[in-house]
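Honest question from a wet-lab person: if I give you the sequences of every part of a complex, can you actually get the arrangement of the whole thing, not just the pieces? Trying it with mine:
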Amino acid sequence: MHRIIPLIVSVIVVISCERVVDLELNEADPILVVDAWISREALPQEIRLTLTRDYYDRTTPPGVREAEVSITDENGKAYEFVELDSGIYRWQPLNEIDTFGEIGLAYFLEISFEGNNYSSVSIMTDAPKIDSITFRFEEGVFGFPDSYFGEFWARDLEGPDDAYWIKSWKNGQYLGRPSEINIAYDGAFSRGGGGDGLLFIQPIRDGVNPFDQEDGDFKPPFMIYLPEKNDTIDFHYEVSDTLQNDSLYVEIHSISPEAFFFLNQVISETSREGGFGELFATPMANVITNIESESQDVRVVGFFNTGTRTSLGRRISFDAIREVR
Amino acid sequence: MKHFYRLASLLLLFNFFSIEAQEQFSLNGYIRDASNGETLIGTTVYISELGGGTVSNVYGYYSISLPPGEYTVKFQYIGFSTQEKKITLNENIRLEIELKPEETQLEAVEIVAEAEDYNVSEIEMSTAKIDIKTIERMPAFMGEVDIIKSLQLLPGVTTVGEGASGFNVRGGSVGQNLILLDEAPVYNSSHLFGFFSVFNPDAVKDVKLYKGGIPSQYGGRIASILDVRMKEGNAKEYKVNAGVGAVFSRLAVEGPITDRSSFIIAGRRSYADLLVKAFSDVLNDGAGLYFYDLTAKTNYNINDKNRVFLSGYFGRDVFKFDEQQGFDWGNQTTTLRWNHLFSDRLFSNFTFYSSHFDYAFSVGETRRDEFNWESQIVTYDIKPELTYFINPSNELIFGADLLLYVFRPARAYGTSNGERTDVSLEDKRALETALYVGNKQTLSNQITLQYGLRYSGFRYMGDGTVYSYQDPVPGERKVLTGAESVKDWETIEYYQNLEPRFSAKYQPYRSLSFKGSYNRMVQYIHLISNTIAATPIDVWAPSTNNIKPQIGDQFTIGAFKNFRSNSWETSVEFYYRKTRNQVDYIDGADIFINEFLEADLLRGTGRAKGMEVYIRRNEGKVNGWISYSLGKSEIKTPGVNLDQWYPARFDQTHNFKLAAFYDLNKRVSFSANFAYLTGTPTTYPNHRYEIQGMTIPYIEDNLRNQSRIPAYHRLDLSATIQGRKYKKNGKPRRVEDNLVITVYNAYARENPFSVYFAQPSEQRLDPGEFTRTQSKQFSMIGFRFPSIAYNLKF
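Yes, you can. This is the full assembly:
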């Protein structure tokens, strides 16, 4: 839903206005933040422990030192996380085939810090392979330029309740804006969205495109550049002797249904475009956490997820174009 | 409560026994506007010898039974010349009355016509009545006369801002108001989200809002009932009413069909898209934005005792991004009514209506990749009602209501690269029933009582799947424990409630009265809306095995005093309302196309209290009113806000309104509105944290609505210039026209609609860099908004 609405409201005549206001927000005591997203692979895995800070504070969050962090699977196999740097705790694989975890097993996270214990559980999930990446051409409308749009092709795994977080990079730069968080539940938008076993639906396939602006004008998400004009080519391109064709790199991270709801809430709390979208905005609330604190009086936020990562990248070229009819 | 029922039945019995104690004759008939034949609702019929009387009902019919004798009867209606008749009652008399409108010119103001004292003498309280002529004189947004926006200038009625659908009454939510257009419920009262309302002022005769003391014939919502009645159509001559405003162009035609029937047909359409199309090709790919409505009504007087009415409304808002993609919504209502007089004293009305609201989305650029979603609510209702004018002291009303609902939360299909999936949700069906009886009893010239009982029931029925959930962990999504299929029309859950209603008036002398009321209202269908303002895509849901009906109990007391022969009206009222099973939401509730919606809903308790002051000047060069409401509306839901009471989203502490009219001369008049509202409650974060590079706000203890957005205040001005009444040669012009110039938000305040927290992202972040976080205030209308409209009648 939240993806359709900006589309609706963008066409309404704008008579509104917006300005930044400074608010005096109530002070609060910092609490522990657990950032534990584990990938099933033979690479070092990191868990970050930090503290919350004032809402307007954009400095590096303070790391939590001298905590004890471990993950154990349901068969008792333990993975030790060693403090590496301020707030960063790392598990190191023994060798190139020492993969973290097995699909379907439950993993228990235990943290002890300042006399309190925190715990969580997550089941290792699997992600589908990305079959291909293509680009399609679209003529510009309403001030948007003629552009290529990237699409990734993958099929949701059979069976209900598979959720994914699709991350993408353009020319090596991670698309990390709140509006660029791209998640799928069974290949569609939500639980009961009917996407089980389906190719990821178009808005999710399209969710890998950046909408950057330069001097108030939209830039095409992806573009082909030729050094000079060539009349024998039917496809759209731009002339540049310095620019290289754009590239797209996509990762699918499998996530638990709870992690999907967590990210869904992150989107509604952070992706606030303002304007008439405010008509459809829900009241602010804390996003859920799956970290439990042993002491009722000590609060904690954050998320623990164990999943699989698959990836594929492609640079746009005339071969990569999918013709749409 | 038991005592109340006993008392009520005793009083009723007493009445029936006393009916034939004395020979009585009835004086009855219809009261009409002499200029166009429209019946007049709520005309006072005052019998001087009794020091009291009755009022005409919603069909303009009055009936009063009196012992034989000589009587002086006065028929009074605001804006009309009072008519006085001397009658000798020695048989039943049918007396049809036609009242002449007062000329709205300066001289008339000085000849102080006796203004009505309806507000003091009637038992009704907590009602807001606003006549269409007043509405037409008020400054309106973009010059478009708007009934719902005008109501918001009355005490206890508010909105969360421009663009918000509907209205809020005494701190209640939008979905707790029942909006009736010729008795049919209108599920969404807005055009263009909430900038305009769906009622075409050209076709509306009467608007009345019940905030409290609600009589037993109304039910189904807990905060208020808005009863809108359509014009019947001019029975005397053809009239055309046309207008061009900044948004709508309007046309209404009315007139007699035969000497027994008349009609009105009124349409409006926004025309900005047509202008754009004429001058540019940007909409040629099928994009567009427009809205329209069509209102029509006809009636036929079969004979003295029988009259039938057929009315309908059809409206739609359409937003198209291109040929394929778009969004639209609209209401459709049809009402068929039959007024039948069983006798002079027994008036009956039989209503059948259907009401339909739906919206639809289509997105996706090709047929291979698209998503279509339709949602709908359909209602059919049969409603017989009888009014028995027993004697001058008793007016008994009784009836029944049988409503069938069909909810279609989603008919939705997705296609991904040619593969189609059906994500539709099951339809839900329910039957709402009510039996009611009410009596208005005049005990003496000082004391009037109105009491009644409504027995309502709600049957949630199959077919479909019924889900059951675990006892909830407070504030969290409920866990599914089972699903069961049920057969067609099988009862899944049944609720029944007794809703007592009671009002009393004590009028120590003619210009002063004290009133008190208690009413219980039960609401069986719920508007599921978790946004700052209600929107057209909110869904209605029935009470189910998991959603309980909302029950509201309200107590109201008030004092009403008029000064200087009713030229000044004043009142003060206090209310307290407690609501059980108020719908609340878990954080991050998913309310669209969610099969397990019930798992995301919570049950809370609501309480609202307040004071409303109203001062109105009816006459003089400068007239108008001031209204002030002091209110508090709170909710307590297990698992939310540390289980403590928290302010409802529509809680506005202070609400001050002023409406003023000034007639400069016969042709030029000015009007002004001013509104001041406390900012609505909202939630601000205290902290932020990072997860996987995303910055997330954090609210300590997850407290809700502990802050408020800045206050809202606005001044609107307008000037109306009437066209000349006479031609240069001295002959009267056939055409009546006027020009209305309006300035909305005259001192250009940027009134906040919301304050939200955003992460500006013009520049992409470098690795290791953290995003900026900021708070922004959004104003729907951030500047002065002038507009001009031209209206003509012939």
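Two things worth pointing out. Confidence is low (pLDDT under 50) at residues 1-13 of chain A. The CA atoms of residues 22 and 56 of chain A lie 10 Å apart.
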